Amino acid sequence: MTTFKDSPLHAGGETPSGRMTLAQIFESLMGGDLTVRITAYDGSAAGPEDAEFGLKLKTPRGTTYLVTAPGDLGLARAYIAGDLELVGAHPGDPYGALQALASDLNFSRPSPLTLATIARSLGIEHFKPIAPPPQEALPRWRRFAEGFRHSKARDAEVIHHHYDVSNTFYEWVLGPSMTYTCAVYPDLEASLETAQENKYRLIFDKLRLKPGDRLLDIGCGWGGMVRYAAHRGVKVIGATLSAEQAEWAQKAIVDEGLSDLAEVRHSDYRDVTETGFDAVSSIGLTEHIGVANYPAYFGFIRDRLRVGGMLLNHCITRPDNSSRSRAGSFIDRYVFPDGELTGSGKIISKLQDIGGMEVVHEENFRDHYALTLRDWNVNLVDHWDEAVAEVGEGTARLWGLYMAGCRIGFERDIIQLHHVLATKLDDRGGNDLPLRPWWNA
Questions:
Q1: Do residues 67 and 170 share a domain?
Q2: What is the pLDDT of residues 11-37, one digit of tens each?
C-alpha cells in the first residue's frame, strides 16, 4: 500500500484525480508515518493494516467537526457525537488507543498546495460550522451572560455543568467512596477504595485534627472528607456549589448518624461566615478559583483559621509556573469550563504573599492520580450499559475520553497534583508545630 510518505502529496504534488481521499487527508494532517489504522466512510484507508488501534471516520458530520475545529476540540466533537470511533478500544476506557494516537498526532500545518487540495477534495459544505454536541459548554466569550469570570453566579453555573450530571452515574464511576479527587495509593496493589480512604487519612493527619476540633472543607463534593473527619469526632462544615452533591452528602450524613457533627451546605465557600476553625481542607477546588483570585482565596482561608490552624490545599497543577493558566479547548468546553491551572510554585508564592501563613510542606502525587484515573475508567467499563442508560452514550463517551486522556497527561508530566500544607502564624511569626513531619506518609 502506498503511504503518505511515499505519495505524490508528500512531495507537494497531487493524485492523478487532483483530489485526496479522507484517509489521505487524515494522514497528511497527522504528519504521515502512522502507527494507527485510519478508515473512512468513503472506503479509503491508511496506516498499517495490522495496527492494534485505529480511527474510523463514520459520517460526513464527523468530517465537518474535524475541519471546523482542527485539533483536540474537533476530534472530541466527532468522537462524543459518535461520528468517530477509536477502533480496538472500549469507549469507557480508550487509554490504549489514545496512547497510540498521541504518538501520531502532529497537526503541523500542511503546505498551501496541500491545503488547497484538501479544500477541493472535501467540498465547501464541510467548512460551514455546525452545532456541537449538546454536552459542550459555551465558549468563554459567550459565558458573560452567566456573569464575569469566577463571579459567584458564573462559578455556580460551571460547577453545575460538570458535577450535576447524575449522582447515580458518579456512584458507578467513582465507586462507594464517591470521591472525585486523587487517591493516595499505599502500594501498587491497593484498591481504589483503600487508596481513597488512605488519602483522607493522610489529610486528616497532616491537619493535626483530633476529636472536638472544627474543620471547614471547601469544595467538599459528596462530603467524603466531611464524613471521614466527623466519624473521628471532628465538627465539620462542608460547602459545595453543586446542588446534587449537597443533597447526596446530607443524606449520607444522616444515614451514618453524623448530624450532630457534620453539615454540607449548598453554597459558595465565600458565603461561609464562621471563623476560628482549627483546620481548612481544600481538596480539588483551587482549579476552579482562577489564578487572579488566589490572593482573595487564600486570604479568606487565613481569616477563617484560628492562630495555629492548618490548611491543606490539594490541587491539580502544571509542571512549571510560566505556562498559560487557561485550559485547552476540549477541557474548557467539555470538562471544566473556566478552569485554570498553574504551577505549584505559583500557588505557594501566592499563599506566602498574603502574609500570616507559613508553608511547611509540599509534595507531588501525579503518579497517584494516573492510578486513580485508571481505576475510574475500569469502573466505567464495568458499568457501561448502566451509564449509557443513565446519562446517554455521548456523555458516557465523553467521560471515558476525558479520564483516559488525563491519565496520559499525568503519566507524561503534562499535569501534576500537589498537596501544600500551611499554618497560620501568631503575631510574632511563631508556630507550635513539631520539628519534623508528624504524619505517616
A1: no
A2: 333 444 578 999 998 887 776 678 899
